[in-house]
Design a protein that fits this description.
This is Oligopeptide transporter 4. By secondary structure, the chain is mainly alpha-helical. The protein has 30 helices and eight strands.
Length: 751
């Protein structure tokens, strides 16, 4: 079916947006996004609905299914983006073209050739199916830790409402911020350019010998074929940690050389999934963002951690692995968390006193310290530098003050809009009351959860309001950072810390507060990114809104059903000590989520980072983060001749660079930074023509090839595993061992 949900205003023909009229475009946008539009292309079609809804449901199912496995695979929306093209063309050939009238409108199952605007909306459906890049809905982790880790109960109905409200709440924040971070040309959303490049490659006809479509197909086949090697035949090349091979009996050398469980010195990878995991494709990130991330990574992994671990044995670090997400006793043994939870799902202080204080690996402890510093540095950096944000254009970085950003925001209301905003004004905009209604309904249901079902979610109604206030305040600045750097600072630690101080001893209240405060903001940023893709591709805004909303509801529902099915049918799921050897159901992501609920919720920050804890000195990182930008500011004032590059030192980005570690590993970072430097510095600078045509297309092809082959391997070959030296990991078994004398750990030498 096809209907006119909204009619474009203007000529019904292919139109060129003309010049920029003095409104500057970021160079990557100018090189990638077309300035033409055909308002007559149908978008609200039966093909779009059929392919979009099915793909959304399938991606939701598979991604939630894979999320519980030792090596979780996120099947990205790029897979659907590629597969939808032949399916769309097939439906355009076989569906009847007869038109009929109903409800005062003219309808047709086949309004013409499959077009790029239908394809974009299918991609939006698919993106919802991947929880906007997260794989599954973040709030599913609450159900998982309650049932699998704490081994308590929660009703399916409460779990479904919790997931739906946390996923949909972000629409309200997105609606309030949309004018500010979608329409201005300087809010360019680098990740959207990958989708634009791929869509153009799939739909535009070119006369060149090597068209973008042909290049994509070749790169896709190469990526698809090669992944059989690291994905099945020879997994060891995912992390080639040759230092471990050279020193098979040395704990210290394996800690240094392991790319997965150590510092990753000398390690490298031949697996694209390792390069793009956690940080997304390095071909998308601007080079200045790569530099900031690398500086922060080196600061932590190659300077602070080695000195603290081997030189000072900080926090008795040698009793524990150098890199681990597990929680330990003071003797170096695994902490028994379930033993300190009472019948009211709160901390049992007598049992806690018996086991003693919780200890962390040095890496995890310092990561928390740096997250404290990042929060404080953000405040002082913005205050001192008048809200300066960094953006890369043609050959140099440009500093934009908060005043300038405000002036650019005003372009959304008056003044000269850029070419894309002018072209989008042909379409009816989304009424604000749509967003306000959705925000009000979601808040009402969330308050219902916190009052009627308070025993299951533990979060009081006022806690929900505080979490929403945090999300509202931070959505705009974090959206700006994401729109200009392709990195999204998280609010997870600050929300956990706040609730842990207010309501210690209640783990589920803490994670619910985090999900409503942090994840609703993150969802808003994702929605805004999709709106920018629709802005670039000239999709009617109302269609974008409805597809995003419907896709989110479908995905959240399927995520909940799949999680409930696995948690009730797989014996001992997520319980590594009870699973049979080689079982894939170890839930690595949920393990990190569980640890956070223990640290911040069950035990509480006062017993870990406060006066009752072992890591109270880490609170000085707040002060350090607050002061460090002052030195940069003073240096810029003292050396005005060098102020232009000194002001580019963005300490919040540097200090927060390793926010994904753990579960991300050092090898993820070194590989990501290396590839990002090659493509977004050397190739962008010296082969700009090639970069313009193929960079984002190559990124999409690499992601799609790995995702498709990952699914093929799982369903076709998972029952036929290979067993030889090259399938047994990175061969750094001693990297997780302690180095302190007398500590007994299974599989480790006693020094």
């Amino acid at each position: 079916m096809e209907m006119e949900l909204e009619r474009p205003r203007g000529k019904a023909a292919v139109e060129d947006g003309g010049g920029d009229d003095g409104v500057e475009l970021v160079e990557q946008v100018r090189l990638t996004v077309p300035t033409t539009d055909d308002p007559t292309l149908p978008v609200w079609t039966f093909r779009m609905w059929a392919i979009g809804v099915v793909s959304c449901a399938l991606l939701s199912f598979f991604n939630q299914f894979f999320a519980y496995r030792t090596e979780p695979i996120v099947i990205s929306q790029i897979t659907v983006q590629v597969a939808a093209l032949p399916v769309g063309h097939f439906m355009a050939r076989v569906l009847p073209e007869r038109r009929f009238s109903a409800l005062g409108r003219e309808w047709s199952l086949n309004p013409g050739p499959f077009n790029v605007k239908e394809h974009v909306l299918i991609c939006i459906f698919a993106n919802a199916g991947t929880a906007f890049g997260n794989g599954g809905a973040y709030a599913v982790g609450i159900i998982t830790i309650i049932k699998a880790f704490y081994r308590r109960s929660i009703s399916f109905f409460v779990g479904l409402l919790l997931i739906l409200t946390t996923q949909v709440l972000g629409y309200g924040w997105a609606g309030l911020m949309r004018k500010h971070v979608v329409e201005p040309s300087q809010m360019w959303w680098p990740a959207s350019l990958v989708q634009v490049s791929l869509l153009r490659a799939l739909h535009e006809k070119e006369e060149r010998r090597m068209t973008r479509g042909k290049f994509f197909l070749i790169a896709l086949i190469c990526s698809f074929t090669w992944y059989t090697v690291p994905g099945y035949i020879f997994p060891t090349i995912t992390a080639v940690s040759w230092v471990c091979w050279a020193f098979p009996k040395s704990v210290t050398m394996q800690q240094i050389g392991s790319g997965m469980s150590g510092l990753g010195v000398g390690a490298f990878t031949l697996d694209w999934s390792m390069v793009a995991a956690f940080l997304s494709s390095p071909l998308v990130a601007p080079f200045f963002a790569v530099v900031n991330v690398y500086v922060g990574f080196v600061l932590l992994v190659y300077i602070i951690v080695p000195v603290a671990y081997w030189a000072f044995d900080l926090y008795d670090a040698s009793k524990f692995p150098v890199f681990s997400t597990d929680l330990f006793t003071g003797a170096g043994q695994m902490y028994n968390i379930t033993a300190i939870v009472n019948d009211r799902f709160e901390i049992d202080l007598d049992a806690y006193a018996k086991q003693g204080k919780i200890h962390l690996s040095l890496f995890l402890a310092l990561s928390y310290g740096l997250s404290f510093a990042t929060i404080a540095a953000t405040l002082s950096h913005v205050a001192l530098f008048n809200g300066k944000y960094v953006m890369m254009n043609a050959d140099a970085a440009t500093l934009i003050t908060s005043t300038e950003i405000y002036q650019r925001f005003r372009q959304s209301y008056k003044g000269k809009p850029d070419v894309h905003t002018r072209m989008m004004r042909r379409y009816d905009d989304i009424p604000n009351w749509w967003f306000y209604t959705m925000l009000g309904l979601t808040m009402a249901v969330s308050l219902l959860l916190c009052t009627v079902f308070k025993d299951e979610v533990q979060l009081p109604w006022w806690g929900l309001l505080v979490a929403c206030a945090i999300a509202f305040v931070f959505t705009l600045p974090i959206s700006i950072i994401t729109a200009t750097t392709n990195t999204t600072p998280g609010l997870n630690v600050i929300t956990e810390y706040c609730m842990g101080l207010i309501m210690p001893g209640r783990p589920i209240a803490n994670v619910c507060f985090k999900v409503y405060g942090y994840m609703s903001m993150n969802q808003a940023v994702s929605f805004l990114g999709d709106f920018k893709l629709g802005h670039y591709m000239k999709i009617p805004p109302k269609s974008m809104f409805l597809v995003q909303f419907i896709g989110t509801v479908i995905a959240a529902t399927v995520n909940t059903i799949v999680a409930w099915w696995l948690l009730t049918t797989v014996p001992h799921i997520c319980q590594r000590e009870l699973l049979p050897e080689g079982s894939p159901w170890t839930c690595p992501g949920d393990r990190v989520f569980f640890d956070a609920s223990v640290i911040w919720g069950l035990v509480g920050p006062r017993r870990i980072f406060g006066p009752l804890g072992y890591y109270n000195a880490l609170n000085w990182f707040f002060l350090g983060g607050l002061i460090l930008p002052v030195f940069v500011w003073l240096l810029a004032r003292a050396l005005p001749a060098h102020a232009s590059w000194i002001r580019l030192i963005n300490l919040p980005v540097v200090l927060g660079a390793t926010a994904n570690m753990p579960p991300a590993t050092p090898l993820n970072y070194t590989a990501w930074c290396s590839v990002g430097t090659v493509f977004n510095f050397f190739i962008f600078r010296y082969r700009k023509g090639w970069w313009q045509r193929y960079n984002y297309v190559l990124s999409a092809a690499m992601d799609a090839g790995v995702a498709i082959m990952g699914v093929v391997i799982y369903f076709a070959l998972s029952g036929h595993p290979l067993d030889w030296w090259g399938t047994r990991g990175e061969h750094c078994d001693l990297a997780t061992c302690p180095t302190a004398r007398g500590v007994v750990v299974d599989g480790c030498p006693v020094l």
